[in-house]
Amino acid sequence: MSLIPITILVFFCDWLSKFLVQRNLSPGESYTLVDNVLSLTHLRNPGALFGLLSGEAPLIIFLNFAIIVLITIIWLKVMRGKWQYEVGLGMILGGTLGNLWDRIGDGVVIDFVDLNLWPVFNLADVSLCIGVGIIIFGLIKQELK
């Protein structure tokens, strides 16, 4: 699987999950799935990672576009055709686009995965973290050869 289908899949899953949360939970409302472990909590995050840079939407939007350009350059120049990098970059790009879509549309990012011991996050955030992990793993594996 290459970067573009993964990007589209991640973006769509993120969009759909946020749509369903907004449709079924009011902002601030929470629904427990597993007691003291996992809840769905509808939060509207005006900042970036863990609410950092709250109120700095233009800067965050600029940084998102910079990440998109950087990923595109890296993919075209360095990592194209190497499956683990295409998967990792696709996940990062899809997650970035998912949160950017929210930020441009509503001025906030919808977060909803609540582990009760970590700040609330969304599927785009999960995808970003997994994508970075895949790329780091690929780079380490490449260095060990």
Please describe what this structure looks like.
With 145 residues, the chain is of the alpha+beta class. The chain has helices at residues 3-24, 57-79, 83-106, 123-144; strands at 30-34, 38-45, 109-114. It has one domain. Helices cover 63% and strands 13% of the residues. The model has no long low-confidence stretch (mean pLDDT 89). A 3-stranded antiparallel sheet has the order 1-2-3. The two termini are 24 Å apart. It contains 4 helices and 3 strands. Strand 1 and strand 2 form a beta hairpin.
Low-confidence stretches are none
* Structure summary, number of beta strands: 3
Structural domain count: 1
Give me the number of helical elements: 4
Salient structural properties:
single chain, 145 residues, alpha+beta, 4 helices, 63% helix, 13% strand
Summarize the model shown.
The protein has 145 residues and is an alpha+beta fold. Helix content is 63%, strand content 13%.
Any chance you could write out the topology, listing elements then pairs?
Blueprint: H1 3-24, E1 30-34, E2 38-45, H2 57-79, H3 83-106, E3 109-114, H4 123-144
Antiparallel strand pairs: 1-2, 2-3
